Please model this.
Amino acid sequence: MKRDLMDILACPMCKGDLELEVVEGDEEIITGTLYCAKCDERYPIEEGIPNLLPPDLRR
Amino acid sequence: MKKKQLEMILEEVRGFSAPDVRKEQYVTPAPIAAELLHFAYMQGDLSGTVFDLGCGTGTLAIGAKLLGAEKVIGVDVDMRALHIARANAERLGVDIEFICCDVKDFTVCRCREGVSPSVIMNPPFGAQIKGSDRPFLRKALEIGEVVYSLHNVGSGNFISKFIHPHAIITHQIAIDFPIKRTFKFHKKDIEIVNVELYRLERRK
Model:
C-alpha cells in the first residue's frame, strides 16, 4: 500500500483513526502494522496489503 | 480506449485458484466488465477515486484504472484472491490499492467527507446465501456518490425499495452474462445468465 492510503483507512471496528507503523518500505509500504489506539488492536500489512479482518478470521 | 480493446486486456485477468461457492466467487467476464466500465466512463464517473467492493481477483478495479481513474481501491474479504489481484495488476501495469476487509465492516476515514468517489461492483447475487447482496448495496451507497452494480434480472423493484429514500436508480441496462463452469452444480460449460447493470445515485 502507498502511504497516502492512510487518508482513506479507518478502523473497521470503531471507525476511528489508524496509526501506521512501518517495518519495510517507504512511500510504498510492504510490511507494517495499522494500530487503532482506541481498540488497542493491530492490523498487519503483509506483502503490501493491509489486512483489516478481525483477529480470529486472519489466517 | 475502445470497449473492445479494454475487453481484450481484461481477458488476461487471472481468476480464483479455489473459488468459494458461498461467496459466489467467479470472475466477472471481460465483456460484461468492459460494458460496465465503458458505460461508467462515458457518464464521467471514472475520473476520480473509484472503489471496487468485493473486487475478487481485480477485473473491475484494473479496468477502471486502465480507463484513467485517478485512484482505485479494491476491497475483498479473501486475502488469497487479493494476492492474485495484485499480481494481475502488476502484470497489466496498473497501480491499484487492495485492502483485505469484510465489505460490511469497511470504513472510509471521516476526513474524506466532501470527497465523492464512485463505486463499481459485481456483488454476490444472493444465489447461495439469500440477501448477501444487501451489505454491498448498503456499503456502496455509504461510500459512493454514484454506484455501478450488477444484479439478477428483475432486481429493480427490490433495489429501488432497498435504497429508498437515500438513493435512486438512474439507469438500468440488461446484459447477457456468460458464466464459465466454475462449480460442480453448474450444468453447462458456459451458462448464459441475464443480468442487469444498475447505476445508482445518492440523493443530495
Summary: The domain at 3-202 of chain B is CATH 3.40.50.150 (Rossmann fold). The radius of gyration of chain B is 16 Å. Chain B has one domain: 3-202. Chain B has a mean pLDDT of 91.
